[in-house]
Design goal:
The structure is a single chain. By secondary structure, the protein is α/β, with parallel strands linked by helices. It has 2 domains: 1-36; 52-249, Zn-dependent exopeptidases (Aminopeptidase). The protein has helices spanning 2-27, 83-100, 125-140, 170-186, 203-207, 223-230, 232-249; strands at residues 61-66, 104-107, 144-151, 162-166, 197-199, 212-219. The chain has a 6-stranded mixed β-sheet, sandwiched between helices. Bound molecules: zinc ion.
Length: 252
Amino acid sequence: MRKIITLAALCLFLTALLTANRWLTEKIRSVSEEAGAGEGETVLTATADGKADAGAKGSGRVVLDAGHGGADPGKVSEEGVLEKDLNLVITRRLAKELEDAGVEVILTRTGDEGPGQDQAEAGSRKLADLKARTERINEEYPDLAVSIHQNSYPDPSVRGVQVFYYSRSEAGERMAALMEKAFREGLPEETRVRDSKANEEYYLLRNTEVPAIILECGFLSCPEELSLLMDQDYQEQFCKAAARGILACMGK
Ligand SMILES: [Zn+2]
């Protein structure tokens, strides 16, 4: 009898231990830079289950977030083109397109700076930067936040534009589909429009309280696509298509 009680107690203890472990695994997630592997830091953060997901709120406001900046160049092409610079150029052009269409546009950065980097220690600048951008977005509470980036891949033939959305956000998924459609309709045939993709890890997607997407405009590692992205006519065509997508997301 005593043996049975001891066994039962042991079973209970193990079950409790397993449950606690599962809870902890759910709560603790590894968060990294928008690109994921390599350059990000690992931090602890709560899951974003409570994220608001009502879709367009009708504020008429959009936040455009030019990725990287300051001490963080983002991706760097073989020729030395910095992602942070191209992100800002495209963000400014896109802001102009939207403003011309009557949208109130808020930028998380307007120059070569990384929001929140100054106050942070060297090792935690990346996270402080992402936090500051996310806080700004949550304060402004726009209809939609678009974070603008450039991609990179070891194989130089890989190219294309791609939209990422938070895997638990229906509004994000809907908006990514509208953006993808606008790119398919508005970009030249040589541009590959990739299927939009769900993501569960990107800090900004996880922690914004409004629908957010990450727009990877193209691959800096593909020479043909890089020259397109640097070309002012293409930039204009690209931003017109992106603006049409954003307007569709806002129900305009
Ligand atoms: Zn980036």
